[in-house]
Design a protein that fits this description.
single chain; 2 strands; 82% helix; 272 residues; mainly alpha; 12 helices
Length: 272
């Protein structure tokens, strides 16, 4: 709820957590350089099979079972790319696994929405995210398959869009095309991002220790900024929805009905 937001769209718990974690992380990076270096070395030298299995599972469950609310999939993919930069895992194989896991995970999410969509929408997991659902359904109604594609690049939409597409009765062929396109672009991009970051960090080892420290601090800053930006977007959607003074359940039902009508119209146009 809006009243629970303390600062920058974050809950009070999140603000307190960041106030503790960020200074501790900075001290750990600056003071505990050798230990951080050892930890990164372990990630880079992780056996290939574990990299493939762990990253693949995390990407799959994010899309299939709303796990993205807990752990964003791109984090796992980037870390997988970092691990691949050490040469123990093949970056091409990893990218293929990520893309397949993303597409299959979205497909499972789609069929869950198709079969049990309304039950899922009424679940406690989504009870506090009515504004986000309203925005996702509006995007789905207006953009159709393109909403599935661009939803892949936003953590909240990536978690809910497959189920909403299934619930709105979007034709699976239409969904799959957008799902596959988004999965390929997203999977390859974030795998390569992690791979290049890992390579850059290893090259920095050949220079001064402060270069590695600066890189880690920049990564921490970027990660914190992206987290706050994502939470602010979610908070803005919830606030706007609450201020609209509409019944939450009724609004979601109306949005879903309109999204279904839009999907039916697309099917009719395709058949025509």
């Amino acid at each position: 709820m809006a009243g629970d937001k303390a600062l920058l769209g974050l809950t009070k718990r999140e603000v307190i957590a960041l106030a503790i974690v960020i200074p501790v992380a900075i001290v750990a990076i600056v003071v505990g350089g050798p230990h951080i270096k050892e930890l990164i070395s372990k990630i880079i030298t992780l056996p290939a099979i574990w990299v493939y299995v762990i990253v693949g599972i995390l990407v799959f469950v994010e899309d299939a079972f709303f796990f993205g609310f807990v752990f964003p999939g791109e984090t796992a993919v980037i870390l997988g790319g970092v691990a691949a930069s050490g040469g123990h895992a093949n970056v091409v194989v990893l990218a293929v696994i990520v893309v397949v896991a993303a597409i299959v995970g979205d497909t499972v999410g789609y069929w869950i929405g198709r079969e049990w969509g309304e039950t899922v929408l009424d679940s406690r997991l989504l009870a506090s995210r009515r504004g986000g659902l309203d925005k996702a359904l509006e995007l789905l109604r207006r953009r159709g398959a393109f909403a599935v594609f661009i939803g892949r690049f936003t953590a909240f939409f990536r978690a809910v869009m497959p189920a909403l597409a299934g619930t709105s009765r979007m034709h699976y062929r239409t969904f799959f095309a957008a799902n596959a396109a988004g999965g390929i672009v997203w999977g390859v991009a974030f795998t390569l991002l992690g791979y290049f970051v890992g390579n850059a960090y290893q090259r920095a080892e050949k220079y001064a220790g402060w270069v590695q420290t600066a890189m880690l601090l920049i990564i921490l800053l970027v990660a914190t900024t992206l987290f706050i930006r994502g939470r602010r977007k979610e908070a803005a959607m919830e606030t706007a929805f609450e201020q609209s003074n509409v019944d939450p359940s009724l609004a979601i039902e109306e949005d879903l009905a309109e999204a279904r009508q839009a999907a039916e119209q697309v099917d009719a146009d395709d058949e025509g």
